[in-house]
Design brief:
Blueprint lengths: L5 H12 L8 H16 L7 H7 L14 H18 L7 E4 L8 E4 L3 H6 L4 E3 L22 E3 L5 H16 L12 E6 L5 E6 L5 E6 L7 E6 L5 E3 L7 E6 L5 E8 L10 E9 L5 E9 L17 E2 L5 E5 L8 E5 L5 E3 L8 E7 L5 E9 L2 E8 L5 E3 L7 E6 L5 E8 L2 E8 L2 E6 L7 E6 L5 E19 L2 E2 L3 E4 L5 E6 L5 E6 L6 E6 L6 E2 L8 E6 L5 E6 L6 E6 L6 E4 L5 E6 L5 E6 L6 E6 L5 E5 L3 E6 L6 E5 L5 E4 L7 E3 L10 E4 L2 E7 L5 E7 L4 E8 L10 E3 L5 E18 L5
Antiparallel strand pairs: 1-2, 3-4, 5-51, 6-7, 7-8, 8-9, 10-11, 11-12, 12-13, 14-15, 15-16, 16-17, 18-19, 19-20, 20-21, 22-23, 23-24, 24-25, 26-27, 27-28, 27-29, 27-51, 30-31, 31-32, 32-33, 34-35, 35-36, 36-37, 38-39, 39-40, 40-41, 42-43, 43-44, 44-45, 46-47, 47-48, 48-49, 50-51
């Protein structure tokens, strides 16, 4: 064997990086450099799949490769590029780099130049080693230290002719297909520190506008040319500017600015301003003011929500989701007068989101959400309002865009536990994947010339934390229930010995249970579908109730903890959710939205009769530990109220205003609740009903997870559990190449 000069090896890597195969594949070059260096350094552990995902592909520290195969898929592409480069047979090449299958260690092969061949017989070629047998993922192929000559067998003329003939048969055989969908490149576009989302491509295909928080909490709109590293800041305001959209002539940019409210949680009380920015003069013009109350049915970025702006081809109208209406349908706003016109109506709590006008302006595509992370891809005729559903099953959708000819839609959808790009005809039918080497795609934007797609790759990691409560003080938080995805909605059994919670560690959200110390995890449900939560134990600890969405709208289920399957309790053509037990086990409280706004009901399990407890505008009913009071939350102002268990004598607890919503729990004679700050911290507070005094128990250095009842205290009052966002990343990438058809 022959020991190669490491300087020569590194120089070969740079030659590869400058080649046509790697010219626009920055992340692929980073991958190659990483595995080469770690191989040269003999760092076996660094070449394991999980470590590569963290170091090269910026996955979080608790990333699980079983749920995200990006390293394996990118390794296949890297091997293909190396093979394509080697096939060029450059006479100046002296080193060949390969990555044998079965691992990520690199193999080096020295190639003799013509000058070397004149000294050594032409039938002899020196190699580092013969290909070893496959190794397990993460094992390293060590660099050899000896020298061995391997004879190269030259083909006879007859052999060459036979080989060429065989290749021609394979190449031109009718069953051989060359898949265009494999001919693509992924290029990082915006990988700044912080969150980047909502990419919008200019009409000339040269520039992308997007939202970036600058690594802090100020969300503004920036632009950057494709292929350039220089950023241009277009807005500079302490209030978030989001959802950029180019005018058809590329001279203006529309966006929304949020005024007031408790951002980034999109609490009510905020105002949404539709603004058009002249890119030549940098003058901003206010088009319309709207009350912003758009909920987050989508599972994308909290600030991105499920809103988008879309210009008409003539530039005289902007289409968006109505943020002011209880029924969040689509509206059209005149860019000249600010006049508003209704395009679609969404009944009850449904929402029409992610709207995109077709290139000819005749149709609007959008996602019709019926529940959290459950939506249908639809197309509406702008003139008649006639709407067609393209997808027949409720899916977790995160954005869409038209192809330039208006015949297809590219959209982001959760399939098999991961978010991928897919494409579907505007006439409906089945969808096909658009390979993009990602497991967390959202917000696709197709360039007007159809040559590339910009999309967001985002990942949120939620974990459940445990905090000791010491009298009137909060102890040191510790991560308790952890995975690479989302863990939330913890709930203690009445004896405090068991915890039920929601986790997507199996690929989809399911209910799990564990001991109070986090041991002996066991999966309880197997819906294999979308969002679920709000777990509450029966007083005897034998059963739980919860809401789930296997068929669209949220429904309530009851389940024996130790055996059996979930049993449907209540299902309606609208949202029925957030159940809880009365302390004597006779009733189940829940809220439902027959008119769009939630109202609290109580079901008598003996008579099966329902009774209205709180009118429209209230949600999340929970009895006090002694069963003498009922607490519930105001849907608009988010204050907690207290009444008799049957709804009598209601009064508002003006000092109890939890943020995020639903993060409160009765403890003794007090209400414990969270109050998140704009600095990324959360105060833990307690309001004592007997003394009407508010106490601050402490502060945790995290923002709690959104949209979940993830704040609970153990029955003995000594432990607080909450779900927090441990890691949130979003970057914008570009997929170069033709779309599959």
């Amino acid at each position: 064997m022959l020991v190669l000069d490491q300087t020569k090896l590194r120089a070969q890597v740079e030659r590869l990086a400058a080649s046509a195969e790697f010219a626009r594949a920055d992340r692929m070059v980073q991958f190659l450099r990483y595995v080469v260096e770690k191989t040269l350094e003999g760092e076996t552990i660094a070449l394991r799949e999980r470590q590569i995902g963290i170091e090269v592909f910026e996955r979080p520290l608790d990333w699980d490769p079983k749920l995200d195969n990006i390293v394996r898929s990118e390794a296949r592409r890297l091997r293909g590029k190396l093979e394509a480069y080697a096939a060029s047979n450059d006479p100046d090449e002296t080193v060949r780099i390969t990555i044998p299958t079965g691992g990520y260690g690199v193999r080096f092969e020295e190639l003799y130049s013509e000058a070397a061949a004149s000294v050594e017989p032409p039938a002899t070629r020196v190699h580092i080693a013969q290909p070893p047998p496959p190794v397990s993922s993460g094992d390293i192929l060590q660099l050899p230290s000896g020298r061995r000559a391997v004879n190269r067998v030259w083909f006879s003329v007859v052999g060459v002719v036979c080989l060429i003939s065989a290749l021609c048969v394979v190449w031109f055989h009718p069953w051989r297909t060359r898949s265009r969908e494999d001919e693509y490149e992924i290029e990082p576009f915006s990988s700044e520190v912080g969150l980047q989302f909502s990419p919008a491509i200019s009409p000339d295909n040269k520039t992308i506008a997007f939202v970036w928080n600058g690594g802090g909490d100020q969300f503004d709109i920036y632009s950057k040319s494709v292929g350039s590293a220089e950023l241009q800041r277009l807005t500079d305001d302490s209030r978030p500017s989001t959802h950029p959209a180019w005018s058809p002539d590329g001279k203006q940019l529309a966006f929304l600015r949020e005024i007031g409210g408790e951002l980034p949680f999109h609490e009510t009380g905020a105002e949404a301003q539709l603004i058009v920015l002249d890119l030549g003069t940098h003058q901003a013009r206010l088009i319309r003011r709207m009350h912003s109350s758009l909920n987050m049915w989508s599972s994308g970025s909290p600030l991105a929500g499920c809103q988008t702006l879309s210009w008409s081809p003539h530039g005289d109208q902007i289409i968006l989701t109505n943020p002011s209406d209880e029924a969040h349908g689509l509206i059209s706003i005149s860019t000249v007068t600010g006049e508003q016109r209704t395009i679609s109506k969404a009944d009850g709590s449904n929402q029409d989101c992610y709207t995109r006008l077709s290139p000819d302006g005749a149709k609007a595509a959008f996602v019709h959400f019926v529940s959290h992370a459950i939506g249908y891809l639809c197309v509406a005729d702008i003139v008649s309002g006639h709407t067609r559903r393209l997808t027949q099953e409720g899916e977790n959708l995160r954005g869409l865009d038209w192809t330039p000819d208006g015949s297809h839609l590219v959209f982001a959808s959760k399939e098999g536990g991961v978010f991928q790009l897919r494409m579907i005809s505007d006439r409906g039918g089945g969808s096909i994947p658009v390979p993009a080497a990602t497991a967390s795609a959202s917000n696709p934007s197709v360039s007007p010339d159809g040559k590339f797609v910009a999309f967001v790759e985002n990942h949120d990691n939620w974990n459940i934390w445990r905090v000791p409560l010491k009298g009137e003080e909060v102890g040191t938080p510790q991560r308790f229930l952890v995975s690479s995805g989302q863990n939330h909605s913890p709930s203690f059994s009445p004896d405090g010995r068991t915890i039920a919670f929601v986790s997507d560690r199996s690929g989809n959200p399911e209910i799990w249970r564990c001991d109070s110390d986090g041991q002996h995890l066991r999966q309880l449900t197997h819906f294999g579908g979308p969002w679920l939560g709000t777990i509450r134990w029966s007083p005897d600890g034998s059963s739980i109730v919860f809401d789930a969405r296997p068929k669209g709208h949220s429904a309530i289920y009851r389940m024996a903890v130790n055996q059996g399957k979930p049993q449907l309790v209540e299902n309606q053509p609208f949202e029925v959710r957030r159940p809880s037990w009365s302390r004597d086990g006779r009733y189940i409280y829940f809220d439902k939205t027959p008119g769009g706004s939630p109202e609290i009901w109580r079901r008598d399990l003996k008579t099966n009769r329902d009774q209205v407890i709180a009118p429209a505008g209230f949600m999340v009913g929970i009895e006090s530990p002694d069963g003498k009071r009922l607490f519930y939350e105001e849907n608009e102002e988010r204050h907690v109220w207290v009444s008799d268990p049957d709804g009598g004598n209601p009064r508002r607890l003006s000092q109890v205003n939890p943020t995020p919503v639903m993060d409160w729990t009765p403890v003794g004679t007090s209400i414990y609740f969270a109050s998140s700050n704009s600095t990324g911290t959360t105060d833990i507070l307690a309001f004592d009903l007997s003394t009407s005094k508010l106490r601050k128990l402490g502060r945790v250095s995290q923002n709690l997870s959104l949209g979940t009842p993830s704040f609970v205290v153990s029955p003995d009052g000594q432990t607080l559990l909450y779900s927090a966002t441990d890691n949130s990343t979003s970057v914008i990438k570009i997929r170069h190449g033709s779309l599959p058809r």
